[in-house]
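Regression report. Comparing outputs from two consecutive submissions.

Submission 1:
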Amino acid sequence: MTARNRNLSALLAFGFVLAIAGWSYMSGGTVRVLMDGAAGLGDSGQALDALRAALDRWGRLAPVVYVAAVVIEVLVAPIPGTLLYAPAGALFGGLMGGTLSLIGNTIGAAIACGVGSALGEDALARRVEGTKAAQYQDAIRARGLWVVILLRINPLTSSDIVSYVAGAVGVPVWRVALGTFIGMAPLCYAQAYLAEQIFEVLPGAVYVLVVAGLVYVAALVVWLTRK
């Protein structure tokens, strides 16, 4: 597939996702629930209950719908990922919920990277000017995979705009997808396991997860800095 065809595919996928998001919002579906939660309409408990109910209506298709919702969250900035990752643990279990979150993030990052590549560096630079993402452009250009991993590991810098910037500066889609997969794994699984229901059933698992996450991050940072 040529670069032009890849860019066109990314833009078509982006447009399709936005169309689905718009339909879901207008029909009062999952995206509407997420946007209301992001706007602070109602308490967090009500938002989580509403999301569980929205996904539960899909029955066996709930995992597929959930992954699609995560992809939309990645591509549409106002939707907070926290409102998705925690209920995933309650709906699907910690392991499956974290895995579905990770799959959605990886797919979303790949699409965002393709869109960034299609827009080009100049066009995207105007959109991220003055943001944290603008500060990362040189680092992403020089060491794309490793920088994406490090930015994704740190919750303070794990912004979805990183994928757009990486695509705009020429980082291959597979590197952004791999970096997102590795870097987002601790956050996705941690939030899935920390869901309220998991807290009640296996309270001790939280501490094991926290320690394992810290060890994972420390080991990965040491490995990356030796490269």
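Submission 2:
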Amino acid sequence: MGYESKILKLFKNGYLTTKDVTENNIPRTYLTKLIKENKIERVSRGVYIKKNVLVDEFMVLQSKSKYAIYSNATALYLHGLSNRIPIKYDITVKSGYKGSLQKEDNVTLFYTKRELLELGVIDYKLDSGNIIRVYDLDKTICDIIKNKKKVDAEIFNKAIREYFYSKKKNTLKLYEYAKKMNIYNKVRDIFEVLG
């Protein structure tokens, strides 16, 4: 089997990264060859799609950094607590992050301490079949409370109300996250008003 065939078999849900190619000891020049043959397309640095596959912006943005985690209003949308399709994607990265996501016009970056970055992260399967990293529902609620001034008031109020009445909520986890994020009193005050 030739390198081109091997590359085409490495695609997952229509996507491939340069890392996938190098880990399989395939010279990168074959990626260029497949692009010239119009079999694949480069959608961003190190990310390729098969021809005739729709670009999944969630996947493309997340592939730009191993530290990128969807959060805030974008996570609310993914969890069904907002019906506003993201125009700008909210992504949390570790403090001190310097990378290509900073140059993206359609991204709002939030920064957090390294030790809190992985708190509440889950793998989320998109309709496309791609898996992205996003904060779970309870961590997302903590994030929007922490970043209340940066979140649209209508989205904030709807999300808090829907979370409060949701069967999916885990208040033990919510308060555990709030303590670690030093926002316990803010979270308690908001939910005491509703209770």
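Expected: both submissions complete independently.
Actual: both completed, but the second showed a warning that disappeared on reload.
Relevant detail on submission 2: The chain has a mean pLDDT of 92.
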